[in-house]
Design goal:
leucine-rich repeat; repeat; about 180 residues; five-stranded parallel sheet; 3 helices; Leu-rich_rpt; cytoplasm; LRR_dom_sf; alpha/beta
């Protein structure tokens, strides 16, 4: 791994896109060609992708067995994975393997078969997770689940500005 490869790893790179490939098991990624996009994928000298985004949406995955191993075969820097799209598969739970990607900021899980709201608690260990989608899963029917709309966000922002006082800047007496 060269320093140049590491520095070129970027969210701005196109995703490694395996969407709509009828993938049943994660191991199939090693023999399947990713979809080509408008911009070509860049690769390290070892032939691995330099992207931080992996799209596996609209497949037939029901588990993530061997996910870490396969991702390490595909990506030069799997530890930098920031965006995983697993939407529209048949996942029934949130696999703990997803919690090992500490740079994960976007995780799409909508349109799966996740049944228990408690599954979401596993993701609390991901410090950079900013976008999580869960709509279209059976958990929507569970008591305590609620989606957040744009109107909810606007209301929360107004409330924040009205109720959270800005921090006062204090000048030390000795500094004068």
């Amino acid at each position: 791994m060269s320093k140049q490869d590491y520095m070129n790893t970027s969210v701005q790179e196109p995703p490694l896109d395996y969407s709509f490939r009828s993938i049943h098991v994660i191991q199939d990624l090693t023999s399947e060609e990713p979809r080509s996009g408008l911009r070509p994928l860049r690769h390290s000298k070892s032939g691995k992708s330099l992207t931080q985004s992996l799209w596996l949406n609209n497949n037939i995955l029901n588990d993530l067995r061997d996910f870490n191993h396969v991702v390490s075969l595909l990506l030069e820097h799997p530890e930098n994975l920031a965006w995983i799209d697993l939407s529209f598969n048949d996942l029934t739970s949130i696999d703990p393997v997803l919690t090992t990607f500490f740079n994960l900021s976007v995780l799409y899980l909508h349109g799966n078969s996740i049944q228990r709201l408690g599954e979401v608690n596993k993701l609390a260990v991901l410090p950079r997770l900013r976008s999580l989608t869960l709509h279209g899963n059976p958990i929507e029917e569970e008591k305590g689940y609620s989606g957040v709309t744009k109107a909810d966000r606007a209301t929360a922002e107004v409330w924040k500005h009205m109720n959270i006082k800005p921090k006062k800047v204090r000048i030390k007496q000795n500094a004068l």
